[in-house]
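Let us work through a complete example step by step.
Step 1: write down the sequence.
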Amino acid sequence: MKRRSRFALAMITMAYFSFLDVSRIYASESLPTVSFKTLQGQINLNQYKGEVIYLDFWASWCGPCRKSFPWMNEMQQRYNKDGLRIVAVNLDQDPQLARQFLAEYPANFTVAFDPEGITAQQFKVQGMPSSYLIDRTGKLHSSHLGFKEKDTTAVETEIKLLLKK
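Step 2: predict the structure and record it as tokens.
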């Protein structure tokens, strides 16, 4: 079995057996110190302290990720001036798969790469996509497993509330 397939199976299995409300696990925890490679160079999440961060973990094989990218583009455009920073972390081991995805679903926000999944482990990612909302002080506010269009209004409300603080 290919490494990508094993990783996908592991992510699906973890999500299936997760009975916890992940949106409550991370509330008020401090942000792990992490840095990523991007197309523009290296970034560290701590450099965005003072901004609200929407941290999203995705992979090219993830169906819901195809729907989340247009929404994240919209959120970045709408709230960038207010201090929203979207960072989408790709977990594909083959960078070509990420490039193909991005050619079809362009990102108007920061795209980072974590092919070893080290940061995904730090954030206890349970499925694809997984997103984490981080307040201006660097504290994890909430997390969201999966992407459902019916939940976007609630997530946008969370973003707006954090931007006002």
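Step 3: interpret the result. The helical segments are 3-16, 22-25, 63-79, 95-104, 118-122, 152-164.
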